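Internal ticket #5521
Category: modeling
Description: The requester needs a full-assembly model to guide mutagenesis choices. All entity lines are attached below as received. Residue total reported by intake: 517.
Assigned to: D.W.
Attached entities:
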Amino acid sequence: MNTSIDIIMLVLIVTNLLLLGFSQLKSCIRTVACQGIALGVLSLLVNEDGFTVWSVVMSGVVIGLKGVIFPRLLLGALRETNARHEVEPYIGHMASTLAGFAALAASAWLCSRLPAFPGRVTPLVAPVAFFMVFVGLFVIVSRKKAISQILGYLVMENGMYVFGVVILREMPLLVDLAVLLDAFAAVLVMGVAVYHINRAFDHMDVDQLDTLKG
Amino acid sequence: MNVLSLTTLLLPFVCAPALLGIINKTKAFFAGRKGVPVLQAYFELWKLLHKGAVYSRTTTWVFRAGPMIGLACVMLAAALAPFGGVRSAIAFPCDLILFAYLFGVMRFVTVLAALDTGSSFEGMGASREVAFSALAEPALLVGLAAVARLTGSCSLSDMFQGLSLGTYLHAGPVLVLVGGALLIVFLTENARIPVDDPNTHLELTMIHEVMVLDHSGPDFAFILYGAALKLWVLGSLLIHVVAPVRTGHAGLDIAAALCAMAGLGVLVGIIESCMARLRLVRVPRLLMGAVVLSALAFVLLLR
């Protein structure tokens, strides 16, 4: 069981690094979709009393929402705009991959200083959760396209989800579903916002938004 | 040195060109052609060895020494690399560093020979070769260091004897990560797609082939043979990390490793049939990915 969780953690790490390294927005969206599917599988694996109906439903909802619906919404928003690449982010792609690696090392160090979590499954889980939050923040501040920032938000949310699902395993189902609903609403609103930003400004570079049109 | 070590020492020297044949057969199969015979590389080597060499008047002894020193380096590396869980002919603590840098010396003399011709075209290839290998080297070394840490020894023979299929149970992610990094290093160092296309001889974007344009006859045979040996040696490193089959019987282990080598040849053929070469500016990103994969494997072991 621990090996399979470790493999999921590995998938999460690699998808994060890929997200930092990819310049095509479409590939970025697909990477985050893969991450969502991995999360769904993870929530199925951590259940100690086997596959209950609720755990299967829950992981189905996660996979459906994060693996299918979010990517489709974002790909739809991308199709409306004419942006294909993350051109000239504030921090280059290779540098951000290295920064991602540094973030992983930092979160490993951070977690070694924290007291042991009660329901910790493998020693890799807590660092990965922190790492995903860091990567999400990094993507939000270092990229210019609005779509990338939605992806950063999603990765951050995924990190919190890992934290919740593995470490605070007693989180009630209702809370989980509410969080997912929040994320869904947020992505929907942001997708629409990107569309409108693009309509009003003919691009979606957020660094030019401080000079607003009257 | 016993009989087994001697067998595994001779195996690369005999079988290396056949691996090229397997790759080419796979590519021909995917293209719907019949393809050249699997043993074609041997025929070419034989033909080249019987030709005379032509040397430009602008070249010096550096140009003539390049192919010989390069072949000597890769032969020594082949003697260092274990095969099928049998101890290699030469093994001492920390030989993995010598192993990694023998390839560095080989590259250095090839680059020097290319620069010695005074051709700007070859200088261009040399510049690319060193730029990319500077990024591939840390990936190889850190990946090997991760395996060394996993097995607790830093001699190549002990490292690969310490691995088995059971290692996947407690350190599967490490093996997968190092395997991924070594695959990228393997493709880069051997100038295969997606980094370089071995079939193009006169294109502006090629890397390795351009450096050896001026060599002819036996010198070129040395270079081709050296390249085949390098393919074999780095490939054997890769398969020992990814598929460490240990049955307890040395003959079976060697047979399994040979099958894995053939499988690797088919895999490379499939990669070359399915992928196009990456744009030159993308290659450093791929290699950086390999470095990160190796470093990740190492970090996983530190915990």
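Resolution: model delivered.
Comment from assignee: The helical segments of chain A are 2-21, 25-45, 53-80, 93-113, 125-142, 146-167, 173-201.
Ticket closed.
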